Amino acid sequence: MNTHFLVVHRLLLAAGIFFSAGCNDDPTTGPTQVEGVVVQRQSRQPVGNGTVQVWLAGNGGGYGQVGAPQPCDAQGRFSFAFDATSEAGYVLKAQAPPGYLTDWADAPALTAGRKNTGLTVPVLAPAWVRLILVDEPPKTSAMVYLSGYDGPGDVLNRPRDTTLIRPVLAAFQRKIIWGINETGVIKQYSQDVKLTALDTVTVRIRF
After folding, report:
1. Which of 5, 15, 57, 199 has its CA 20 to 30 A from that of 100?
2. Alpha-carbon gap, residue 187 to 189, rounded angstroms
3. What is the bridge-based pairing of β-strands 143-147 and 154-157?
4. SS3 label, residue 45
5. Is 181 helix (H, G, I), strand (E, B) or coil?
6. What is the pLDDT of residues 37-75, one digit of tens each?
7. Using CA atoms, how far apart are residues 201 and 182, in angstroms rounded to an integer?
8. Stated pTM of the model
């Protein structure tokens, strides 16, 4: 075998190996391996005993769940596979007690049909807001609208003295908003709150 042929053969072989390795990151359909660990976003420490969930972006917007949630061990580690039917649009979110959640902006993307290993799925620590509604004299029939925490909010008709505890994600500035309707006109109020991890802040609402 002459020297020129040998050099060309080795170059083609090296190029073939490089091309094959690059294809491992190209999305396709079929079996997709997912491995990694769930960590708290602020501290980067593992968060255990939760679950991870694959989501797929829909054509009309929004995301839909793919399969069932997959368990994590006590160190936050997970390993599972699913069958990808689309070449793109997959992300991974996690949740763990007592209320850790992955923000959509932090959810890592998955390469369909390939091995996704060494993933880090960050979760935000939970916190809570305690809403204390106080019906002060003279007693009135009021409708109270509450929002600014996780979830759709609450509408309370003639609540009297009531206490609600609602979840929020820690480390974000939040504005708790409430409206009081006593005479057909809604008067709106608000209070800024910022909660640290696993903390509870009290908002007192008088009407």
Report:
1. 57
2. 7
3. antiparallel
4. coil
5. strand
6. 999 998 899 999 999 999 999 988 899 999 999 999 999
7. 27
8. 0.68
pLDDT tens per residue across span 157-177: 999 899 999 998 887 889 999
Each domain of the chain, given as residue ranges in start order, spans 28-123, 126-206
Burial of residue 122, with CB atoms counted within 10 A of its CB: 0-12 exposed, 13-18 middle, 19 or more buried: buried
d(CA 95, CA 99): 7
CATH code for residues 126-206: 2.60.40
Interatomic CA distance for residues 177 and 153, integer angstroms:
10
Residue with tokens 């009021």: 142
C-alpha–C-alpha distance, residues 121 and 109, integer Å: 10
DSSP string, 134-173: E-PSSP---EEEEESSSSS-EEEES--SEEEEEEEETTSE
